[in-house]
Amino acid sequence: MVVASGTNSFAKEMAIRKRIASLFNKREDDFPSLKEYNDYLEEVEEMTCNLIEGIDVAAIEAKIAKYEQENAEQITNARARKAEELAAALAASKGPAQPDTEMVTEQNPQAGQSATAQGHYAPAMTGGQLMQPRPMGMGPQPVPLGGPDMHLDDEEMMRLRAERGGRAGGWSPELSRKRALEEAFGSLWI
């Protein structure tokens, strides 16, 4: 069992959830009915929550060990299926195969990795794990709607922008007045 420190409950919960998800990895198509699949998910979530909260840990650990022994082949098959899906997703993210003459590769100065054609995404790989794609190069930039002759720096426009920005964030002049009055009258009775 993975033991995480008691001071970081989030890390403890994530470690437990990751461990349980790696073992109890059945999918909906592994069950004959949706009700059986939902019952399975409910049981897994109940075990997970009880482990996180420290309720009946010994019995749950015994149940997990028994499940792992009985379903070792199914767990391995599910992990292999997930690896195949990740490999297929990686191949799909690279796009159709292109001749080397058409592929533009350049060295990205910030990431130090090869880049594909400008404006495309390339999958990031570290330690054999697929991470989120990262943007490569500058894509087409949006054109301002107002055109080049639009004057955004005059006082009226700056006042409107400040007023609208405050209202969009939930602020209003009445709130500040109300707070000032409450603080003033609240300090009188000390």
TrEMBL record:
Residues 12-103 form the MAT1 centre domain. Residues 127-140 have a biased composition (Low complexity). GO terms for biological process: DNA repair; regulation of transcription by RNA polymerase II. It holds the Pfam family MAT1. InterPro entries: MAT1_centre (IPR015877). Residues 125-146 are annotated as: Disordered. PANTHER family: CDK-ACTIVATING KINASE ASSEMBLY FACTOR MAT1. This is MAT1 centre domain-containing protein. It comes from Opuntia streptacantha (Prickly pear cactus).
